[in-house]
Design brief:
The chain contains 23 helices and 13 strands. The chain is an alpha/beta fold and 485 residues long. The strands form three sheets. Strands 1-10-7-4-2-3 form a six-stranded parallel beta sheet, sandwiched between helices. A four-stranded mixed beta sheet has the order 8-5-6-9.
Amino acid sequence: MTGTGRITAALPFPVAARRQLADGQLRDNLRRATRTIRDRRARTVAQVPDWEALRAAGTAIKDDVLGRLPELLEQFEAAAGAAGAQVHWARDAAEACAVVTDLVRATGADEVVKVKSMATQEIGLNEALAAAGISAVETDLAELIVQLAGDTPSHILVPAIHYNRRQIRDILAAGLPAADAARLTDDPAVLAEVARYRLRQRFLTARVAVCGANFAVAETGSLVVVESEGNGRMCLTLPETLICVVGVEKVVPTFTDLEVFLQLLPASATGERMNPYTSVWTGVRPGDGPRSVHVVLLDNGRSDTLADRVGRQALRCIRCSACLNVCPVYEQVGGHAYGSTYPGPIGAILSPQLTGPDGGANRTLPYASTLCGACYDVCPVRINIPEVLVHLRQVGVDARRDRPSPERAALRAMSWVMRDRRRYRAALRAARRGAAPLRRVGGRRGGVRRLPWPLSAWTTARDAPLPPGQTFGEWWAGRNPEAHR
């Protein structure tokens, strides 16, 4: 595994989205799931009288963290080390995967159990471990479904959101032993019970676990994982060795700060006032939990993102996925269209910043939005995603400003015409004379559906309006002839 890992899209967003739009079942699954989650969130938030104050507090804490991130990371390293944990630093995905692989090899294990983790997905850890002969078993039910399907997650919170019950039953039946598969039905409780029974054997025999963290507390060196199933806690307590891969932006200064996020996150993510399972651990304690704890602090483009005064607000993200559940674009195309571990509105601003100017198809992600602003309205830490999207679009335009462009040439020509009244009027008269043939080419409802290249770049996504029969000035002169003598 090299480079930035699994955050670089293989295809431009318009190409990938067009393929996803052809899947009617996918759109139906997404529509049902996202509407259920966002309605639940709305009901819960309405019951919190100080919700906006909590949002403001979370935003302030995150901005304070970003303002003194190196200091807080060093504080975390010192506190975690004093508590018995070993802290490692990784500049990119390749380095993080190498560190984790070496740590697992040192234990002699050839299998690890995993807690659901965006950071390990980001760096492509499962693939790196497999290349080293080490199998990784996902223990989150949705992650297990995706893994058995040979697929990738489509949602930050609900990785298997793009499947319905019948599809999930078929995936589990194909990936589990025949005796377990025979017990499966479409009932979610039955599906969960069969998977839970199978995973329990893994928990009891695993020697190494790999996890991420929702938060890292600088003052104590503690790590925090929130989850809904309890599988994560099994991974965090039973194995002898625990390896935690944590993005550097996950640090918070104190436990008092953590209190704010433990209210914001469950309400925004699952519509719950309190998360079902919140696990906190600090280093190593003899006779209680893992005997060896390693923390891998991951950069992987975050320092470059931090340097952007506008774009850095993406690092406030607490991975609640509220922005995905309200996004009209995500609801139609799903997470795979974004081609990155981070889908939806947050992925459209985070992925291109993490991969930088050489991110290839990630350059198209800032355009994967209608700029409706719904994502900003629901974000618990008030990331102004529309602002960052426009900013990243401008950055992309500026980067190509010196390159030849038909669009730029056309705009310069229009500027020359519109700077002179006589030229402008002559151009309008010529446009009106050409309107009739254009209507015959493909006009409908006063617009042209297809124009030749390079103007086809406009009409592939929208109609080109035809010039009116007369200008406003001409119309006005006809109504007031005396004023124009």
